[in-house]
Design brief:
Blueprint (H helix, E strand, L loop, with lengths): L1 H20 L5 H13 L7 E5 L1 H4 L4 H4 L5 E5 L5 H6 L1 H4 L7 E5 L2 H4 L7 H18 L4 E5 L11 H16 L4 E4 L26 H11 L6
Parallel strand pairs: 1-2, 1-3, 3-4, 4-5
Helix pairs in contact: 8-9
């Protein structure tokens, strides 16, 4: 009987061990950031860009903002809970003078159909954490973009953007940076030519739109 019980429990025990040894999502990205920081410490009072793959893939971001001390800590595929989870690794240690956030799109497109209101709650949690730990830091949120591959969630995107904008309008030392409308054509349709083949990530033309809109909000 004992042998039978052990044989039944063994897969469960082994499963627990494997799970314990498996690194959490995006941990390899965080480790890579730490190695970069060790090799080349960031300048004080930098501008930190943090969030999901729209920042991750902006690998030449410093060229778009010459004269601004930029740190890019976007990690692809991340959602707001991921940024919250790793905030003590990718936000607070840098003591930035400004944090620019692009995140929430993956939340809305997730398999569990996260609601716009839940995304707003998550953003408010992240905002509060930054404000408590970095009370003098400016917090700037880049609105969720209109991605053609995610046409079906644009209703939620618009609600999330609207509610986050409303929240930020009541905060001090904070910005809502609206890039949504600039990425539509004259008829209000999403501009496919701004995106690569996956219809989610942007080409350089998309980033040039972002650069023109974001730069006036950056602190010199």
């Amino acid at each position: 009987m004992k042998k039978l019980l052990f044989s039944l429990l063994l897969p469960v025990l082994l499963s627990g061990i494997v799970k314990a040894q498996t690194a959490p999502a995006f941990w390899n990205d965080i480790v890579a950031f730490k190695k970069i920081d060790q090799a080349k410490p960031s300048k004080p009072a930098s501008i930190l860009f943090v969030g999901s793959s729209s920042f991750t893939r902006w690998t030449d971001i410093q060229q778009y903002f010459p004269g601004y001390p930029i740190i890019n800590r976007g990690f692809g595929g991340s959602s707001l809970p991921d940024v919250i989870r790793y905030s003590y690794d990718v936000i607070f240690p840098y003591r930035p003078k400004q944090v620019v956030i692009y995140c929430g799109e993956n939340d809305l497109a997730s398999a569990d159909s996260t609601s716009a209101i839940e995304v707003v709650k998550r953003f408010r949690t992240l905002f509060a954490m930054i404000r408590v730990n970095l009370p003098e830091t400016r917090i700037s949120f880049v609105s969720i973009k209109p991605s053609p591959s995610r046409d079906k969630i644009q209703g939620k995107v618009k609600v999330a953007n609207r509610e986050i904008k409303s929240f930020i309008s009541k905060q001090k030392n904070a910005d809502y940076i609206d890039i949504y409308g600039a990425m539509l054509d004259g008829s209000g349709n999403m501009r496919e030519e701004l995106y690569v083949g996956d219809r989610l990530h942007m080409k350089a033309d998309g980033y040039r739109i972002w650069q023109k809109i974001i730069q006036p909000y950056l602190i010199k």
